[in-house]
Amino acid sequence: AERPWVCKPIMAAPPPSAPGEPAPPPPPLQYSLLLQHLVGDKRQPRVWDPAALGGIPCPPKSEEQKMVERVMESCPFKAALACVGGFVLGGAFGIFTAGIDTNVGFDPKDPYRTPTAKEVLKDMGQRGISYAKNFAIVGAMFSCTECVVESYRGKSDWKNSVISGCITGGAIGFRAGLKAGVIGCGGFAAFSAAVDYYLR
Fold first, then answer.
1. Does the predicted TM-score (pTM) go above 0.85?
2. What is the Cα–Cα distance from 171 to 192, expressed in whole angstroms?
3. What pLDDT, in 10s, does the model give residues 4-45?
4. Spatial distance between the Cα atoms of 96 and 123, rounded to a whole number of angstroms
């Protein structure tokens, strides 16, 4: 039985012979035609079907899915997400630091008076809200700046984090003067580079 997948050499059709004349010898193999069908212009591309290979076929994305992806990749959404995350993280960090601080709830006018549980909880809440606001502002500024820098450069590498950290730290530090702004720029840039290096 012949195998259908075995490639057969292509031969040119022999010219017709006159009656009474011996049949001409078979022509030589035309390997050039064979190569054209294998690696040349006449080669048919093979279509890979994920379902035939055992994979899960991926349906085309709808317009709603594309719109959701564009919204999630936008700078305002990233800034809002970082703001919410910074608020939660800052609040938890503020409550934690207030919990281990022995001076929480004490009145500086009367340091010998023992604070009540209500005063301690109130002081912890105020510190948590303060930390949450600061972390939210820093997170939103850093995320928005990084998104703008990445969109401007057209690259996603460690330089985006360093530039964004320098801009964010400088903007926060400049409120206290030029020296504080320079220190804040360098400190935030170094911290951003270390975090980006660790995560990557």
1. no
2. 15
3. 444 555 455 555 555 666 666 665 556 666 667 666 666 666
4. 12
